Amino acid sequence: MTRVPLSILDLAPVSAGMTRAEALAASRQLAITADCGGYQRYWMAEHHSSETFLSSATSLLLGHLAEHTSRIRLGAGGVMLPNHAPLMVAEYYGTLATLYGDRFDLGLGRAPGTGPATARALRRGGAELRDFAADVSELAQYLGHARGDEDAAAAQARYVNPALDRVRAIPGDDTRVPLWMLGSSTGGAQVAAALGLPFSFASHFAPAQMRDAIEIYRRYFNADAPTAQVPAPYVMAGVNVLVAPSDEEAAFLYTSAIQLQAAIRTGRLGPIQPPVHDLNDVLDPRLTNLLTQSRSIAAVGSPATVVSYLEDFVADYDLDELITATYTFDPALRIRSYEMLDEAWQS
Predict the structure, then answer these.
(1) Coil, helix or strand for 52?
(2) 3-class DSSP assignment, residue 319
(3) Domain spanning 6-238+322-346: CATH superfamily
(4) 3-class SS at 74?
(5) Which helix (H) or strand (E) holds 73?
(6) How does pLDDT run across 163-207, given as a tens digit for each residue?
(7) Where in the chain is the domain with CATH 3.20.20.30?
(8) Per the confidence metrics, is the pTM higher than 0.85?
(9) Its family (predicted)?
(10) How far apart are CA 307 and CA 236, in angstroms?
(11) How far apart are CA 60 and CA 150, in angstroms?
(12) Please, what is the angle between helix 129-143 and helix 186-195, to 10°?
């Protein structure tokens, strides 16, 4: 069976007893490990005002990782565009591309990545589909995206916003940082299709609409859109992964991730907690049952168990790429999980 590319999604998680500097150092070490292996991309997702995740200043972290890696593609998975002016996003990521070359992806989402109070503090703009699509188009214009053999002038003429003619994202213009659309619903799929962008579906935390979203994306994909990045639909999907030498050890270590899911559901976010032998000792049994039953997009087990799950998942949805998220209390075991997965997937 042909293996699709594997990528990594990192939110710079903090474990209990760990300093924030140690957590960021752990993400740096994971990126170095991924760079030395066979992973395609290393993406970081924007979150704000979180005691669990430190990936708020995503572009700064990606620049730091670029200094410590040489091969792997780095990217935002993603930038929550309504939180930012498109011009500033083009400047930030255009600067990264100018400094480090064609190594960056710019995944775009419309969720807040935080709670309502923090969203207000960010002076968040409109996130309706029409507003969001307009912001993506504006961002693409700033980055100088052209299709085929068009020169910059011809590409500029394809856009319908002449008011931006005198506004330039320096040094972002003409860097053409690749754009991706992120989504966890059919709405994101519609925007990705209309704009001709590759689509990354957040099935690792919101799998309910995955099949419908992918179908809509493929059916209505517009390769002739001015913003088009790929000639045909391209789908990447998220999956939670934890690999250990045995199924039993992996299941034990994964209880930290289940506790994290419980914290997210109840709004009691905090550092990642140690694994436990019995989740009923730390969680309400009703919540424990709900979380263990909802593990539909999670590959947890030995290398053979995880590879078999991922192969079936890829075949079921005809995926072009997988992006994996792994949470462990001990960051060394997260690195071990990714090393074991890489070796098994490449064999």
Answers:
(1) coil
(2) coil
(3) Luciferase-like domain (3.20.20.30)
(4) strand
(5) strand 73-80
(6) 556 789 999 999 999 999 999 999 999 999 999 999 999 999 889
(7) 6-238+322-346
(8) yes
(9) To bacterial alkanal monooxygenase alpha and beta chains.
(10) 17
(11) 32
(12) 40
